[in-house]
Amino acid sequence: MTEIITVALNKLDVDPKNVRKTYSAEGIKELAATIRADGYRLLQNLIVRRGDKKGRYFVTAGGRRRAALLLLADAGEIAKDFPVECKQREAEDATAISLTENLHEAMHPADQFEAFNVLACEGKAVPDIAARFGTTETVVRKRLALARVSPVLLQQFRDEDMSFAQLSAFTVSEDHERQVTVWTSLPSWNRDPHSIRRALTEAMIPATDKRVQFIGGLAAYEEAGGSVKRDLFDDRNAGYAMDAALIEKLVAEKLEAIAATVRAEGWKWVECSATAPVEFHSMRRYYPEIVPLSEEDQAALDGAQAEYDELAELIESGIADDEAEVKLADVEKRIKALDSRIESYSSEALSLAGAFVFLDYYGRLAIERGFVKPEEVGEAEDGVEGTENIPSASGEENPRVPTMSHSAALLEDLTAHKTAALRIELANNPDVALAAVVHAMLLRVVYPYNSEQSALQLSLTHERLEPSMKDAESCKGLSAFNDLAENYGHHLPGDPADLFDWLMEQPQGMVLSLLAFGAAHSVNAVEKKFTERKRVEQANQLGRALKVTMPDWFETTGDSYFKHVNRTTIELAVAEARGSEAELSVRAAARKSEAVMISDRLIAGSGWLPVPVRIAPAVAEQEVEAESIAQDA
């Protein structure tokens, strides 16, 4: 029999028969906020039974609501004896009632998102919604953003064909058509959140872009009137610049301001660029001459260096005053200005050559001086005695010098010097180094009989995996990699002799993709009889860095695993994946073939993997996991 009664809050006790024993403090606060917002009324009555003492009642169902009311009473918002409407039931029904209430399925997240959006559409402000449900404004904004994802994709999430992380990635764009296009165009194995965001933001400029950093970050861009798209699910909340033209304008203005000071040095021309000029590596160039400092400048430099050493010593010893860092920076500027006077370009160089002002590979300002344009090389050569002052950056011999013959020893000596120069120049030029490394890799993996066409002594070993596999045709990873190789094969030039020039013409994104493609050929985590353990450990480290989800690439089945191991291993695997009861059903099988069939059915959908296939966690994570298991035991 159910009876509606009113009981004072301070007469309600926790029911020992209530199956829910643990409550989230944060959840109680949120519930208290919803009760407050509704005039301190409960949407559902508590279910109670008579307590052990006269006039007191046990709360069989509604422990969270009771805890929330007590929180409000402790805060002085309601009285200690606040009247609470309850439904009274008999003691023998208590456990069943409590279990029934707590086993109810929680509201689907997508329904929550849309419910929050309805409130927003009704005109309720984000702060009000947050206060109403006892949560933060950030959480509300995230839920509203999720609700505005394409209904087609929300349905995919409801149907469990899309993860929460994947759905979150779509919030960076509000274009439903674009969202659906990205989802359907990406292959199933490449639908990770990072790939989704990258596809949706390809027309946007991330805050980490070197151009954005050069102008002073998104703050400077916004101050200039630029619009920003924030990613609520990016912990850094860095955002994206939406106006590429404005970014280019701001970069150009800053470069031009710097170029003005370079022009004041007297160069024939000064050119600006947001990237390193492709042609300047092959241009002839003047270099500065060493000029001794005047006595006055040398004395100033000696004094500044002594002052620098003194300040640095004070800072390192921890006894410097608050102004020491500022003073040190000022001294550094003075030393740099004086050092710049040690080198000087001739008036001839200034009248015939120019300078480039640009951003290097890392986004740092670069000023390269002394270059002679190809059409002015003749004038430069006529104006100097010989051409040794304007060497060719490409290393080409001067066409006016006749061909010479050299002994083998001298040839080896000279080319050793040439190699030394190439190494240091390549080390200082990441753009060309990137192309050169990818060039060498691709010669090895795409043009296997042309590796000698690279000057780099890079060795890339690519071991075929098919011989190590029992059923190579069923391997998802191998199939996807072969598809990728075929895709790149349609883009690469047919003649390996054209490869390097082709790479130099490609956008950096394409070259980086090819670098990853080439490097991927050399990955080898295959464990054979005498495999070095350190290599296996590094393979796990690589897997963790890549955030590899192995169940996406390998499914444990009878054919892929169980029929290849003994009965004991099968039983242990099922016990680990499904528990001891499942293990007993396998153990009861009369024949191994039957055990394999049962295990196949039990493991399906569990995501369980054999140890050799897993990406092992880091040592620290293993220790935490072991400690947790020990505590549970």
Give a quick rundown of the structure.
This protein is of the alpha+beta class and 633 residues long. It contains 27 helices and 14 strands.
How many alpha or pi helices?
27
**Cα distance, first to last residue?**
43 Å
**Class from secondary-structure proportions:** alpha+beta
Shape: extended
Structure write-up:
The protein is α+β, with helices and mostly antiparallel strands and 633 residues long. It folds into 4 domains: 3-102, Conserved hypothetical protein from pyrococcus furiosus pfu- 392566-001, ParB domain; 109-246; 252-395, no CATH class; 549-614, no CATH class. 49% of the residues lie in helices and 9% in strands. The protein has 27 helices and 14 strands. The strands form 4 sheets. The protein has a 5-stranded mixed β-sheet. Helix 14 (295-317) runs antiparallel to helix 15 (324-339), helix 19 packs across helix 22 (508-521) and helix 24 (567-578) packs parallel to helix 26.
